[in-house]
Amino acid sequence: MNTWNDHLQVAIEAARLAGSYQRHRFTSPLSIELKGDKDLVTEVDRESERLIVQQLLNRFPDHSILAEEGSCPHSESPHCWIIDPLDGTTNFAHGFPWFCVSIALEADGELVAGVILNPIHDELFTATRGGGAFLNGRRLRVSERSPLKDTLLGTGFPYDCASDPVNNFDNFMAFQRAARGIRRAGAAALDLASVAAGRLDGFWELKLKPWDVAAGVLLVREAGGMVSGFDGSEYSIFHNRILASNGLIHGEMATMLERVASEEAA
Ligand code: IPD
Ligand code: CA
Ligand code: CA
To answer: Which residues form the signal peptide (predicted)?
Structure first.
């Protein structure tokens, strides 16, 4: 029996609760606010977070929470839940059916459990540390595709990409030339789950937050993939540059990102 299985089950229940609420509210009239120039938040983001946090704290009242919409009760507990209640808010608000709930658990600073639920496609991605990664109960393995020129990659752009020159545009152009294709699907957690499932061979992005990546990072690692900083360095979910891949193309992707950075600096 996996040590983190009970925690995973509670996270799955919380994700399903929020997921069915999101499915029910998808395409219904919404109250939408702007957090920044392009960064939306809807009543569904906030209510999903409330449902998830309530469910987790019901079962684990002394645990800490780090969640995107601001529910952050902090305790001395070594356990912290990291939650993106709705990843892909822009998609959700525009009726584009590609978004998810993402919930991860850290224990003593290590990712130990992760759940990503795509409620429209009814796809539940789960992982526990040392216990493997699964999609609807079927074991996941990253792809075996290489070299870079034969691969399909994922990425995204920060909300401040129009005003800040650190915006990923140059990396995008370089990889668009070098790889078979790139998808910008609009939900970083699902991009990482797609690497774990072998649907994408690699993913990179900058300025992501811990809740965008926590569950997805565990999924990729448990599916046999690699996660690092852009230069291949050790990764933490608090770093703002992430490179994830099937491992086979990791070196080629890191070299490309370093080359673009040095050209930008020159
Ligand atoms: C966003 C999505 C998107 C990524 C953005 C994130 P949100 O999260 O993951 O794919 O490119 O940087 O902020 O705002 O939809 O939760
Ligand atoms: Ca997000
Ligand atoms: Ca979100």
So the answer is: none
- Report the distance separating Cα 236 and Cα 256, nearest Å: 21
pLDDT beyond 70 at 1: no
> Do the Cβ atoms of 86 and 48 come closer than 8 Å?
yes
Identify the structural domains of the chain with CATH numbers, from first to last: 5-139 (3.30.540.10), 148-265 (3.40.190.80)
pTM recorded for the entire structure: 0.97
Question: Do 124 and 165 contact (CB within 8 A), yes or no?
Answer: no
Give 1 Cα–ligand 2 centroid separation in angstroms.
Answer: 32
| 8 Å CB contact between 82 and 214 | yes
Confirm or deny that 148 is annotated as ligand binding: no
Sorted by sequence, the CB contacts under 8 Å of residue 254 that are 6+ apart come out as: 228, 230, 231, 232, 243
Give the model confidence (pLDDT) of 83-118 as tens digits: 999 999 999 999 999 999 999 999 999 999 999 999
Looking at ligand 1, which residue's alpha carbon is closest to its atom 14?
89
